[in-house]
Design goal:
228 residues; mainly alpha; Arc Repressor Mutant, subunit A; 2 domains; 10 helices; disordered N terminus
Length: 228
């Protein structure tokens, strides 16, 4: 949820190799490269992104570009990391202030609404996010982020409902967040009005689990007993 980017994720084992700028000029050049790439993705889509065009518009040689990003995937990876890092910061800020059930419901609902509106308003983010399922490295990045965000949600649920089964809450929170990502992907593929309706439907469904984890556990136990 872009306001500023405070950090990037710790690299996964499969992360594309990049040069890490240490000098001011190098950092400024990297930022210019990423700004150009963002603009190109917003206008043409990530599939049409070309390293030669990034270099030309960044006013650097292709050789210099490869010193920072060895290929297109590494450029997209860095942008995805930044979007994820800012989203995580917003989640931490919103859920960290929750003290009771009412606050949890309000914070979670607002996060979903904000996320959908920001994805709609950020063409480059929308394009990268929509194509994550076609790239194994980006899929791994999304899964990692779902675990982190799900963990933040679970911590908040357990703070509000301390008598809940911790394992079940953590499993539910992870699944809720990952399904939320899928819902957003579906929503942005639809017309805005329909997309908002899908987000609202997911919000209603997921809040049933989020707001009553203890009751949900009892119902699951009863259902399991009935089946057995």
């Amino acid at each position: 949820m872009p306001k500023k980017i405070p950090e990037v994720l710790e690299p996964l084992g499969s992360e594309p190799t990049r040069r890490n700028p240490t000098q001011q000029r190098s950092r400024e050049r990297q930022e210019r490269i990423l700004a150009v790439a963002t603009q190109l993705i917003a206008t043409k889509g990530s599939d049409q992104l070309k390293m030669s065009e990034i270099a030309e518009r960044s006013e650097i040689s292709i050789g210099s570009l490869y010193q920072y990003f060895p290929d297109k995937s590494s450029v997209i990876w860095m942008l995805a990391e930044r979007y994820n890092a800012e989203s995580r910061r917003c989640i931490e800020e919103a859920l960290g202030a929750v003290e009771d059930a009412q606050g949890l419901q309000a914070a979670y609902s607002e996060l979903l609404d904000q996320y959908y509106e920001i994805v709609l308003a950020t063409p480059a983010m929308r394009d990268i996010w929509s194509g994550m399922q076609a790239d194994k490295q980006l899929m791994a990045l999304e899964l990692q982020e779902s675990r982190i965000a799900g963990g933040l949600l679970a911590d908040t649920m357990l703070r509000v409902f301390p008598d809940s089964d911790a394992l079940r809450v953590r499993e539910s929170a992870f699944l809720i967040w990952h399904l939320g990502e899928a819902t957003m992907r579906l929503a942005i593929a639809c017309a805005p009005e329909e997309g908002r309706g899908l987000v609202e439907a997911f919000k209603r469904m997921s809040l049933l689990e989020i707001m009553a984890p203890a009751a949900g556990s009892s119902e699951l136990d009863s259902a399991a007993d009935a089946v057995s």
